[in-house]
Structure to design on (286 residues):
């Protein structure tokens, strides 16, 4: 059996630890060695293996492959944990809906926050707050332009660098911006996202340590054909939202020097799912 869980871009600027968008970069996990090339054995310390065991999976070997670059702010660990936990639930005979719920519970516990895992479970746009998650379908006709440098960022170290106190003015600005994200997605009025993606809580500190990402972000947010741009997760990747027709033009404007990669990616709208395996639901869930 092979399951797939999409990567994610978290925070979306102001939504620290609560907003995320599923990205069409899949983490694939198999419980038998696939015939296809590119799969790697899963070591016991791999996040997929840890989640698989935590969700009650068996002790047999696992194999994985994924285009999600680890340590770049695109939800590698969240997708791996969701895939591992979901595979374990399906192996035990769970139907897709309870298997997804169990995968989200296990992955959230291991991640320490829910937004990445929720995006990988549900697809689309998610809000994680108050111990629960809410998903919204994301409007059609837009893609992500994602710049990723060759170097990675330690999420743990990045979180430790953040201030422990913020001003009431900054907190209020972020609450308003995050709420605007939800309203814009719900109504399809994505033109409102240009200012809704601005952040005062975490991006300024993180970007001080990554002037390369800061430069890319500044260039993207200044473009009239970009709807929104933000530091993806804890970085160092930078993501931007643009109409599908102009996303390749935006991508071509971003320098990919020094080993960096620029990609145009779709929004994953399905979440974790079974790609192949024994009889049962294999199509993307409704």
């Amino acid at each position: 059996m092979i399951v797939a869980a999409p990567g994610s871009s978290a925070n979306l600027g102001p939504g620290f630890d609560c907003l995320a968008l599923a990205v069409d970069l899949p983490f694939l996990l198999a419980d038998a060695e696939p015939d296809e090339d590119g799969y790697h054995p899963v070591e016991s310390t791999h996040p997929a293996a840890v989640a698989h065991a935590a969700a009650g999976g068996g002790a047999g070997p696992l194999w994985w492959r994924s285009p999600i670059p680890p340590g770049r702010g695109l939800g590698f660990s969240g997708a791996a944990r969701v895939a591992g936990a979901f595979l374990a639930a399906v192996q035990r005979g769970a139907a897709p809906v309870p298997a997804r719920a169990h995968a989200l519970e296990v992955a959230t516990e291991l991640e320490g926050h829910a937004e990445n895992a929720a995006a990988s479970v549900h697809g689309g746009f998610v809000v994680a707050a108050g111990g629960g998650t809410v998903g919204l379908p994301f409007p059609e006709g837009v893609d992500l332009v994602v710049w990723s440098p060759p170097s990675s960022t330690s999420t743990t170290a990045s979180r430790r660098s953040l201030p422990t106190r913020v001003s009431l003015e900054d907190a209020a600005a972020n609450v308003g911006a995050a709420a605007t994200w939800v309203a814009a997605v719900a109504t399809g009025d994505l033109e409102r996202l240009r200012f809704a993606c601005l952040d005062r809580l975490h991006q300024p500190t993180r970007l001080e340590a990554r002037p390369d990402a800061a430069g890319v972000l500044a260039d993207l947010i200044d473009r009239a054909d970009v709807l929104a741009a933000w530091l993806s997760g804890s970085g160092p990747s930078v993501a931007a939202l643009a109409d599908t027709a102009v996303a390749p033009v935006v991508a071509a404007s971003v320098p990919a020097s020094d080993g960096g990669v620029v990609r145009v990616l779709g929004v994953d709208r399905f979440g974790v799912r079974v790609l192949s395996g024994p009889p049962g639901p294999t199509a993307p869930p409704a």
Notes: The radius of gyration is 18 Å. The chain has two domains: 2-136+268-276, 142-265. Residues 2-136+268-276 form a domain with the Ribosomal Protein S5; domain 2 fold (CATH 3.30.230.10).
